[in-house]
Protein 1
Amino acid sequence: MYNKNQIFAAPLAGISDKPFRQVLRMFAPEASLVTEMISCHSLVGRHKNCIRNFDDYSDEGNIGAQIFGAVPELMADAAQILESQGAKWVDINMGCPVPKVATRAGAGAFLMCDHRLAGQIINAVVNAVKIPVSVKTRLGWDAEHQNWRDLVHVAADNGASWVTLHGRTRAQLYTGVAVHPDVSDMPIPVIANGDIKNVDDVEKLSGLGYSGVMLGRALFGRPWVLGQITGIAKTPKNVGDIVLKHLDLVLDYYGKRAGVPMFRKHLAWYSAGMPSSSDFRIKINQITDAEELKSEILKFWGCVVNI
């Protein structure tokens, strides 16, 4: 098994915000967390409509901040900002498959097709900061172009400290079963990502040369799983207490007007599989008032906050 800081929580777009990371920290104080990806253009431009551009990471423990972009100089500037805000390392997104990033912006997964530019970006970021730099990527663009090995070597040659490998191609998006190839011969450490949900999944990677594991969608509605894999947490006795705590963090961070609708997706995940969860989701999707939402959570889980 891996030690606590070799267990990572993935950068999940629209999910891995500061409130979610605070909940993860309740169960896994020493795990390695990664922020949702941040545009280098937005960060350097200090766009005020993107609240995560101004996060203070100094109190978040072992946390990496992920950036995406296709301009080496801007990526370097963005990395310096993240370092000044307390990030412990910078992660470069070279795996995001969505069209607005991978095709229209020429970033994310597109960089699996342009290793020259990928190397320039890594080199620029590494030379701009004193903290470690990592890369998150995929197996390749599609089944016919699985060139992840070459990209790991590009990352190593340009000073990256490690690479996280999601076991799908860009064409797969998040469908199909993740494949975890043997990485024993890679020049820098590789972290496994994709379909890792529990200790059994982690143990299946034994002998393949991975230096750690990264959990993603397994954390939806079950943030304690990160702590379970590190061996220090159990499923909470009353999930409703965690839900209410998470909601309060979201409301504090985004405000009530934006926070209530934003939290609905989390409620859908937290309640999944529970009796009457379908009726509950229909009801909460009509609610816009924070106190009314809390009341429905209390009724559904029958909880008393004791955190």
Protein 2
Amino acid sequence: MPRRIVEIDGEDVEYELTYKQVKNLNLRIRSDGCVTVSAPCSVPLDRIDEFVAAQGDMIKRARERIERSVPRREFYLGEGGRIPIFGREREITVTKGSRIEATLYVERLALTVPDPTSEEQIRAAIRRELSRLSEKSMPVVLEEAAKRFYEYSIPKPRLSYRCMVGKWGSCLASEAQITFNKFLICTPPECMEYVATHELAHLLVPNHSPVFHGLMDELMPDWRARKKQLEPYGYLLRLL
């Protein structure tokens, strides 16, 4: 999806733009605070930017509501904080060491950083472990999800991993390239499988049309419930 930026009250606001067969411009605020806009193909970009800018107050209020709904974890990125991994919360422990390292145990995520008071170093350690876990686990999740496509002929996709703010995954169908958000590894396995199935389905239907939704209904009848289960984890995209 194309991403655009408009200035609202001196701040840059990014939004995702999708052209659809609709009559009017529509704006939506996702649970992670990201702004999405659907527009008729005939509407010029400057008109869409003006439309988004005019919704500034609504966008601000919606994001404030989202922020208030996020559990307050003042110590989230420090000793005693908690982070979900595979949907199960683990306690964060932080010790001082010469290098940035992280190790996942059954009940805790142990971090070693040169400065235990540095949120930047703690965040780097967490992201490093999430990267390792993603590269180890997501190919297995994708392989399981691919079994749902046994009646279809889809190519084996190339995988990559990134820390993304606005989405859990993406698919470049023309190059059979799937990218997973590293933070997806924090969510329950059924949510990871939903995202994997969603992105694989884009190899067949590279949009979010009714045809795509019908395919998802066929492949994973409970996909809407899984998507709903995924929404509360959106706060991770802002905190990490």
Protein 3
Amino acid sequence: MKSWNMPEIPSATQTGLAYDRLRGEILHGALMPGERLRASGLQDRFQLGLTPIREALMRLANEGLVEAETHRGARVSEASAAGFADLMATRRTIERVCLVQAMRQGDAAWEAEIITAQHLLARAALPETTRDRDTAAAWEALHRRFHAALVAACGSDWLLRFWNQMVDHSARYRKIRLLHHRDAVAEVRDLVGEHRALADAVLARDFDRAPDLMDAHLLATERSVARFLTDDMIDAKARPARRRAEGEP
């Protein structure tokens, strides 16, 4: 008997498992922008109930990570150059405000987390191939920890809530570039150096340099990712996954 029929797994727990799995794959894993999400196929793959799968899809639709299609299930939200530019402009605005407030209010524990997060990120491996999703996800987790550490002391739950939402959506765009960071078009920068300079300026409470470094860092990432966001390139990245989802060879 399949595990999704086992009564000892409560429906609420199954919904949480389905949500976490889907969300992780959209942000850091195999699910690419525009890929179709069939509830029955996800039920078989995740070994979870159909209702929890549908509830998880609804939650993700409310977050803007999934788009519902009438009579056709759902798709991972599409990627576009214009949408990404709008997202990143909003994130740069919010991140600058958070960073300045964090530098004003941060304590020794905040400083220690920045140092630790930057150290771990500097030593994290990048994926060798587009199939190395686990390495990419591990790098992304440490990258998010570093940026979260920088703004953590801003003192506003609402600002951090908006910040987290922006980071979630930018992650699904950035993974396109991260998985292809060895391509010439990626034009990979010295990310270790950029992150070190950011950490140093923030810890020094340099209110002029730190926000400008952050803005430049995010803008450079935006420009790098945008090189992968032409319609043809997006379709080329997503086509194999779409074929799998739709049962094509």
Protein 4
Amino acid sequence: MNNQIFTAPLAGITDKPFRKILRGFAPDVSMVTEMISCHSLVGGHKNCIRNFDDYRDEGNIGAQIFGADPTLMGEAAKILQDAGAKWIDINMGCPVPKVATRAGAGAFLMRDHALAGRIIESCVKSVQIPVSVKTRLGWDDAHKDWQDLVRVAALSGASFATVHGRTRAQGYAGNAILPPKPVLPIPIIANGDLKTIEDIERVQKLGYDGAMIGRAMLGQPWIIGEICGTAQRPENVGNVALQHLDLIIDYYGEKAGVPMFRKHATWYSAGMPNSAQFRITVNQITDATELKKIIKDFWGL
């Protein structure tokens, strides 16, 4: 089942440290990086550390890019291939205004299929690895034309597509609802509110070729291992939190890493006794040694 399960690209979350945690629970799962701006990547912007990630030690990983310039997107795809990505994923579903409206990228490409096709074609011509797209059901309820976009993607050389069961207008509100998979020329991966093995089985019965797990991973990265049958929930989550914190500090440095880890600490503690007070305390800490002590005390380590 591993080759049918993917981890979703989550902005600000599925960075290299988190992917290493995920990989520990699911060695063979297919992963996708958080989205990377083609402008930032091609420009080599030094303030964006993920522009310089080396993927060669990350197993089966796709690198996701976003942008509206076909030439730059092709150049970005080549950079990521050279860095060791196993495939390129093009974001055509991000609903955030700075991406989908001001930048004319992400979900905006659901409104301009001709441009979407040119971007895919440029990426396909620039690399020797597969290219995929990730999209939504459509811009809004009146324009659920994702199937048309998938056909354009196939004609432009894309190898497969992922569809999230919401429109751009929905954002992340309401429930993701995936229709039965129609007959399309490339495989389709299902995404949106998939949290359990039962959810995976449900989309398989709908005809989808795979499933992509997203926000269900927050605070429980072992869920991927549970679904793939390679791991179980650890006896003490605090050990995972400490490992994750160390990886983040190694990657970003203590000054940036400690504030960045706070959200993860909150997710790891969700549902536990005294978690509300733990979150308040964690959100005031800037020192790594102090944060590690708080984590050890909270989980009894």
